[in-house]
Structure formats: C-alpha cells, structure tokens
Amino acid sequence: MVISHKHKYVFVELPRTACTAIGKELIAYYDGEKILTKHSTYERFLRKASSAEKGYFVFSGIRNPLDRVVSAYLKLKKDHRRLHTRLKQKKRYSLRNYYLLKQFEFVQQPDVTFADFFQRFYRFPYDDWSSLSHRNLDYIIRFEHLQSDFSTVLNRLDISQERPIPMLNKTEGKEQTFWDYYTPEIIPQAKRIFGPFMQKWEYEFPESWGTYNHSSFDSLKLAAVNIIRKPLWRYSY
Questions:
Q1: pLDDT tens per residue across span 53-82
Q2: Is residue 215 part of a domain?
Q3: Rounded Cα distance, 57 and 143, in Å
Q4: Torsion of CA 120, 226, 210, 178, to 10 degrees
Q5: Domains in the chain: how many in total?
Q6: Is the pLDDT of residue 161 over 60?
C-alpha cells in the first residue's frame, strides 16, 4: 500500500493489476511512501487510519480475470523471481501460502498445461478481494487501460504527470494472447467460473466463445462461497 500525505491519496495494491509498477512510480515521482504490507486491503488501512486519512482519495486496480489467471499460471510455471521456491524453503506459511504452494507443486510436474491447472484449481465462481471495497473507492485503474487511467488519477489529484508508467514485473513465457490458453474443452467451465465477475466489471468474453447466458444460480453460488472468502480476505492481507 502507498500513501501520500502531501497529495492526500492512498493506493491499494491488488495483485497482478500492475500494482508494482504503479506503486514504484508513486513513490519515485509523486511523494508516495509505503505503509502496511504491499497487498494490504483497504479495510486493514481503515483499522489504523486517522480521521483525516480516511478522507484521502483512494484508488486501486482491476484486471480481466481470464488474463489474470493465465498470468498466475505462468508465474507459477516459471517460478517468477524464485518467489515460490523461497516460500517453500521457509517452511512456515499461512493457509493462503499453503494453497499457493500446492498450485506451484502441481504446475511443476512435467507436461502440466494451463488447462490442467485451470480444471484442478478453478471449480468455484471466481472472485478476489476487490469485492471487499473496490466498488466504494474513488477510482479503479483498469489494467487494460493502465496509462490513460493512471493519467486520469493524477488529473483528479491535480498532479502533473512526470512520465508514462514503465512496464515492470512482466510475466515470462506469455507467447500468445491470454484467451488462446483456454482450450475448447475448458471454455464452458471458464464461462461459468468467470461469468459473474466479468459481468460485474463489464468485461466481455471473446466473441468466438459464443454468448454468455448469465445464470442467477452462478451468482448465488458466488455469494455462498464469498461468505467464507470475505473473512479470510479481510484478515489474511
């Protein structure tokens, strides 16, 4: 998380939404400073914030989940910056990291494809901790419109932009567009899993996938699963 008392903003870093690049840019050029931990939720900030800080301009990011899950798979597959190996060596980790290591061990097996990974670990309606507070924040930067949305944030804060955001923490091994990783046999599952989230954030499936028919049952399943997820998100980040 990044805060600026001079410009009165808080940047909430949702993973895999270019938060590393944005956070470093804010610190280097726009009087930002790190607080809490990198991926802390806004709820955690509010538990410690002063009354003045609670009134700061708050922004975060969002990303097409089809793309975000492919990025997660490739970073596990390539052991991005050896983060997963180092985590495994610590031998002391949270429930969230335990699940991450399960994914890491699975994709390290020979011949495991993205389709295998998706079928194994994505069986419930997709969501992330953006559901806790993103709808109530002042602005959401879409990963797909990173440069223009970041410029909009600076304009809202009456700050002159120094330069475009450089690309950092790029996913290795991404040799095709993200939707090409979704093979025909997993497309129906992907539509069910991602549908409610995609609809909420106004993302669209590729036209070649056919029409997505929103199911109220899928929304009910998402709400039911989030009864468990939300408390974990609130106190795990």
A1: 999 999 999 999 999 999 999 988 887 556
A2: no
A3: 19
A4: -60
A5: 1
A6: yes
Instruction: Give which of 81, 79, 123, 129 is closest to 105, Cα–Cα.
Output: 79
Cα–Cα dist 15/73, whole Å: 14
Alpha-helical (H) ranges within 126-173 are 130-133, 146-156
Domain-embedded: residue 82: no
Host domain of residue 147: 2-64+129-156
The residue assigned the tokens 């949702």 is 14
Report which of 191, 172, 153 is spatially closest to residue 65, judged by C-alpha positions. 191
Is residue 194 one of the residues assigned to a domain?
A: no
Please state the pTM of the whole predicted model. Answer: 0.88
Residue 159 carries which DSSP code? -
192 is written with which tokens?
A: 């069910």
With respect to residue 163, please indicate whether it lies within any of the assigned structural domains.
no
**Chain segment 103-131, per-residue pLDDT in tens:** 888 988 889 999 999 999 999 999 999 99
